[in-house]
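W.,

You were right to be curious about this one. When I first looked at the sequence I had no strong expectations either way, so I just let the prediction run and decided to look at it fresh. Below is the sequence, 150 residues in total, followed by the output.
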Amino acid sequence: MNVCSFTDRKQPIMKKIVFLFFAIALFSCDKMNSKKQFFGEWQVLKKEQLNADNTWIDITEECDKDDSESYRNMGDWYFFPGDVKCTESDLPSKGKWNYDADNKRLVYANSTNINVAEATVVSIDGDGMILDMNSAGVTNTTRITYKKAK
């Protein structure tokens, strides 16, 4: 066996292993960072309703404008109704959340881990977020625009 030919065959295999390691690390970081962009508190700016003619109309009430939601890194989600309540039943609540990056979808669960709502992420950046809410089997009929509060 020629030592040179053994070393020559070993080198491409090592390059493939190193490349595979970096590809897995890059993919894992991308998934992690995509969830991390939600962390923090988001204040409601606007709520819109989808009309039958496929246009959005503003349905924001004054009581909505001081509401906020908080997404924490351990999957905890909090809703804070603010000082101006829309109804007497507007109370702080909490649940779980998860981000499905492949489908650009947020999934919300109650305290018993039953999925109660989903949202399609229309856009998100460091300053703002727009979600199309899906609940009770009705898809994308309410759009909520948020600004990053904290």
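Here's what jumped out at me. The first strand starts at residue 40 and ends at 50. And, maybe more interesting for your project: The two ends are 65 Å apart (CA to CA).

Coffee later to discuss?

I.
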